[in-house]
Hints:
- With 303 residues, the protein is α/β, with parallel strands linked by helices.
- The chain has 2 domains: 7-219, TIM Barrel (Alpha-Beta Barrel); 235-301, Non-ribosomal Peptide Synthetase Peptidyl Carrier Protein, Chain A.
- The chain is built from 13 helices and 8 strands.
- The protein has helices at 7-15, 28-32, 36-41, 60-74, 88-91, 103-117, 136-146, 168-177, 192-202, 235-252, 255-269, 276-285, 289-301; strands at residues 21-22, 26-27, 51-56, 78-82, 121-128, 150-157, 183-186, 206-208.
- Strands 1, 2, 3, 4, 5, 6, 7 and 8 form an 8-stranded parallel β-sheet that branches.
- Strand 3 (51-56), helix 4 and strand 4 form a beta-alpha-beta unit.
- The longest helix has 18 residues, at 235-252.
- It is globular.
- 46% of the residues are buried.
- The model has no long low-confidence stretch (mean pLDDT 96).
- Flavin mononucleotide is lined by residues 1-4, 24-25, 54, 82, 84, 124, 154, 186-189, 209-212.
Amino acid sequence: MAGITSSPFRRLCRSYGAGLLYTECISAEGVRRQGERSLVLADFHPDERPIAVQLFGHDPQQFHNASAIIAERYKPDMIDINCGCPVKRMTKRGNGGSLMKSPDLIGRIIEAAIKGSGLPVSVKLRSGYYPSEETAPEAASIAEDAGASLIAIHGRYVKHGFKSAVDLDVIGRVKTAVKRTPIVGNGDIKSTHDAEMMMKQTGCDRVMIGRAAFGRPWIFKTSGDTEFTESEPSDTEKIDILLEHYRQMLDYFPEKSAVPKMRKHIGRYTRGMRESSKLRVEAMKLSNAGDVIGLIKEFMKTI
Ligand SMILES: Cc1cc2nc3c(=O)[nH]c(=O)nc-3n(C[C@H](O)[C@H](O)[C@H](O)COP(=O)(O)O)c2cc1C
């Protein structure tokens, strides 16, 4: 998730049992131009393997070149193609979710990324672009023929953004549209029950969790292949995890970028706790990491 799942957060998710991790989405064009801002997003720690570096763009040649650079520099386990992002500044340039209008182009991009990188290539789809045009099953079949190693499907139309309920039926249709490629279902999973329901109703092989991990990385705690534990940490334990997250961020990023990046995480970890809104407001005002950590520790004494 762009702006959220930096390397320290991904490692935290892995420590609780997350399977495959993905980087935030990265501009294929930015990588092709060797832009430092794009390249740093593709960096990861060995503990994050297996990891997919996710690229967005719209031109097969762009993906060919970018995938080659990523493979040479970072050697991730997989390259993932973003065909789901609904943000306007992406779709108006033909990137992200806009690709759901052109399943053939998705196929050509996958072929180009495989050729460029020599790595397994996966793809993340949505149901389609316009609610009247369900293109995901066709796109999945084309992706499989193009050589995709894994297909993730978020069961919502791009035009719906994050509104509307996730449609499990489309995930089922994507599963039946492919012959051998593993299908990962995605959308609104917040619990063991949701994950099991999705797998049962759609036949998907794995599930992907996004927003429910934000402020709750322990959601990945597994007891077996597909079971999650439902035991939530206590509020004190949650704050301990937040502080560990904070320390890891300070190890990885300069303080002046770690501090603002952590503000939204503080809000998430402490959501629902008494007086947490005061903590969030106060944390917004501070730019020194030591002061924020002090503030969090003071808050911890009050819960
Ligand atoms: C803030 C935010 C950033 C996101 N960034 C990405 C991204 O970079 N790449 C991607 O494939 N999906 C991205 N997503 C979508 C999620 O991966 C996921 O498909 C979607 O939120 C539905 O799943 P969920 O209900 O488990 O969150 C993002 C979602 C949010 C809320």
